[in-house]
Amino acid sequence: MVSVLSELKQLHPCLRARVHRFHPLHLHPPSLSSSATGSGNSNSNPKTFVLYLPTVCLRYEQNPSFALACHAANHLNVPLVVLAVVVDDASHACPTHPHRYPPMMHSDNDVNSNSSSLCPSVVMTSRRLAFTLQAMSHACNLWSEHGAAVGVRIHSHAGGGQRTPDHLTLASRSSLVITDEPFVSPYTTFVRRVEEACRKSNVECLRVDGSCTVPPLQVLKKRNNVGVCSKILYDGVPDKAYAWQNKTEHLRESHLTAAKEGYFDAPKLSVCMEDDDLSLRVDSSFTEDIAGSLSVGQRLAHLFPPRWKQKSTNNVLDDDDVQRSTLGIRPYTSRELSQLYQNDAHVGGATPEKQQQSSNTRASQQLHIERPFHNFALNWPGADHTIPPCPQTIGTTPCGMRRWNKFVQNGGLLRYGKERNDPRLVYSVSRMSAYLNLGIVSIFALVLDVKNAQKMQQQARSKGNDKCSQNAKGNIRWDKSGADKFEEEIVKWREMSYAHAFSREDYDDVGSLPQWSVSYLNSCSSRGDCGRYTIHQLANGTTGDAKWDAMQKYLMRTGELHNNARMTWGKTVVEWLSSSAADDDSSCISASQLILRTLCYLNDRYALDGLSPPSYAGLLWCMGWTDKPSGGNSGGSFASIKFKPARLYRWNQDDFRVAEKKLLAPPSIQDDENEDSSCIIHRGPKRKRSVMDMIRS
Fold this sequence. Notes:
By secondary structure, the chain is α/β, with parallel strands linked by helices. Among the domains are: 4-96 and 115-274, HUPs (Rossmann fold, 3-Layer(aba) Sandwich), CATH 3.40.50; 508-664, DNA Cyclobutane Dipyrimidine Photolyase, subunit A, domain 3, CATH 1.10.579.10. A 7-stranded mixed β-sheet has the order 1-6-5-2-3-4-9, sandwiched between helices. A two-stranded antiparallel sheet has the order 7-8. Strand 2, helix 4 (64-76) and strand 3 form a beta-alpha-beta unit. The chain is globular. The protein starts with a helix and ends with a helix. Residues 27-45, 105-118, 313-317, 348-356, 358-369, 468-478, 525-531 and 672-688 have low confidence and may be disordered. Residues 48-213 form the Photolyase/cryptochrome alpha/beta domain.
């Protein structure tokens, strides 16, 4: 079998550099039985379709994965099928990460409690579900308009066939599978299962990086050995973030230019399909009678799961069709998802509490418009509705770009260096991390804007219009611009975290920490003033430390936490739990493991930007990753972690309450960031003015 990737000669080098194949072809040829039934794929099988399974690149423009899928579909002269799957917590545990949840931190009241009951969902919360569906509704509509057949499935452990792995069935029957480079769980688990299904059926499966300006794949060196689950490991990630930026900077301009010139945008499809073709029922007699006049969808109907079939060729519904189409048994079409977005409809099975929330939301036209999928997510079977959606954030590309443009237009890049550390100034930071983590907003577009802002500030500096200072010797020293500081966050730190997650299995485990840090945490002696807290107290912000509790409650209610505050929030947990675990002889794991599991749980469960490489890198930093030890060198016995106790934090609980009120204020009060949803679904992002114009204004 010839690789489709090798046949795509017209691909831009920067697009090709983002693609890799996890398993070699012809590792396990399909059996004769599977080929005969159409469940496998081989050289002798007719060409079927290209399958794109998006996970962390939920956008239409500047999407390398979708672009490659369209190139491949045109090369093979087959249609493109897009199946967007919203995964749940069942994809969050795998052999490489059996430790996702922290063990119970004992107290007199919960010694006999089951730790699993203390650690509910971190993936399938109403908060994350609503945000993801908002993103998919916009992207899927544009993918469908482009000519792909699009379906959306939402996994749920509530039963009724909602976790049936239909994506694996489609993968084994396709001509080629394209996935986003997943980087972290649960997306890595999802993609690896797809790759295993492709390996057994000898179907080529390609990963494409759309998350980084420079893909780690292009820079790192592959190891000869592999890890658990046959994960490919890489070497070459430096210990410091600035070193990673220096190592990749010479490649960045070419990738940004490729994105700007449209090489990461999809070509027009030569063979198109409708979303409804995925659920089309074609009778065998009908097929035999007019086999020569069948549409593309009719010819491929036998490849899609029978449980998806909703209508026959004459569009007459059978008695069971309605049941098949409920609760996600078959995929939602892009049109249906758009209708759910606009109507804020909810599904059955609601509790009285949820029904009251739904009626309250529908009672207000303002909420009805500005909170798409909130009722749906609060009532979806299997979703944890105790973590509600974020009212201040809508997860579509236009809303994300509107937030970014507002930040730039209001001088955010200019003032970033001065105001970025004040959590009271909620709009002095971009608040783009959640959009970037799921690829809702293009990283290329943002970094291009930052680069342009840097050029402007450099020009102002050369003309003497920028501020400067004198050092002790009287020499003039230009202050680092806001755009320079922002670039450090979005390129240096962010992309270093992606390289870290890409290169190793234990990206969120203590194996990533320096040995001096692990040794220090595991040998901490008890500190009587720190006390010990249960997972309930930490999660609910009821520890008694007023400032830390204010940070945690802010995170719970808004799904956000200012980066400066989050560092103190995490460092405080490290200080508390290192002493508590060391004083607890019953603990079955080390202090360092307990701390990291707890931090990951708290962050992933509540933060909208959790479950991402930057989040895990930030939590590891709280435990000494890429940091210098305090009190000695890294090899000495006196090396320790620098703590940042919340009780010493500059701002207090009242400041966080004011910031929360400002952040959650109705759009008419805060700004026009959340517009009528009807103008979001069917449009791509509109860039009326350049970043230059915004900064000048």
